Amino acid sequence: MISGKFAITIHILTLLNKFPNDYLSSEFIAGSINLNPVLVRKEIANLKAHHIVESKEGKNGGTKLAVDSSKLTLKEIFEMTFETIGLGYAKNQPNPDCPVGKKINQNLDALYAEMNQKVSAQLEGISLEDFSNQF
Amino acid sequence: MISGKFAITIHILTLLNKFPNDYLSSEFIAGSINLNPVLVRKEIANLKAHHIVESKEGKNGGTKLAVDSSKLTLKEIFEMTFETIGLGYAKNQPNPDCPVGKKINQNLDALYAEMNQKVSAQLEGISLEDFSNQF
DNA sequence: TACATTTGTAACATATTTTATTACAGTATG
DNA sequence: CATACTGTAATAAAATATGTTACAAATGTA
């Protein structure tokens, strides 16, 4: 469920923020992350769907930020790449004839929802610009 | 990194707490979770290493709680099954010649450390007894 | 004692998820 | 019209998680 999408996406966005006037190619970005360019383009496709970046096809094409980095928060990036954090569920259908099995996922859901609120509140206080300024 | 261990472990502990006077077999527990008994025994081995439960081998054997469930917090369970939550890292070594690649994991670390503090604070306020009483 | 039941653990097998690669059509630049 | 990109699908490989089999060792019970 939790993969490196957030890390990849924030890496991409940090680079775009460092070069606000250039269209960066997926190849260039992939070289900084040390990742396959196709995977970079996939994350960029997601960012485009959320209107965070814009791309230009063809020669000298690439991607650049389409929003003000002081307005974009890590919470929004988090939500774009993961729905939630959590600590997993019983993978198989737990036994519905057991009072615990019957309610376990529901109770875990409630717990994780609260976790997400805490984390969201934290991430909402950090803009891409803030994050980028650490470099 | 993040798997279903927390969910499985808390399910086990909730069951043990519901039957404080019995040694529950891994087979019984597995039946509630709908999981292979060997995997249950593996999580129990971890709990034993932390002195949270005790087991009895042989016929009529099984496992029972060894601590007061009002004193055991979800934070401790969390720490027993995961070191940390997080949103991943660039999997491959990012490019050390790029200012962003060079520091990205370090900056993500700092971010995740803060996330863990928030979540830990939340989980510290919930005992196994509290969680168990929801069923 | 002999048997049944259960833990503990290792070795192996399968399934799932993540990451990588290849390929190529479409688009813009010079 | 050659070059250098994006976009995307199909496939492959690698990593991780989950499941299974097997069996020694322990312990209660007839």
From TrEMBL, chains A, B:
GO terms for cellular component: cytosol. InterPro entries: Tscrpt_reg_Rrf2, WH-like_DNA-bd_sf, WH_DNA-bd_sf. It comes from the Bacteria. One of its GO terms (molecular function) is DNA-binding transcription factor activity. This is BadM/Rrf2 family transcriptional regulator. It comes from Flavobacterium cutihirudinis.
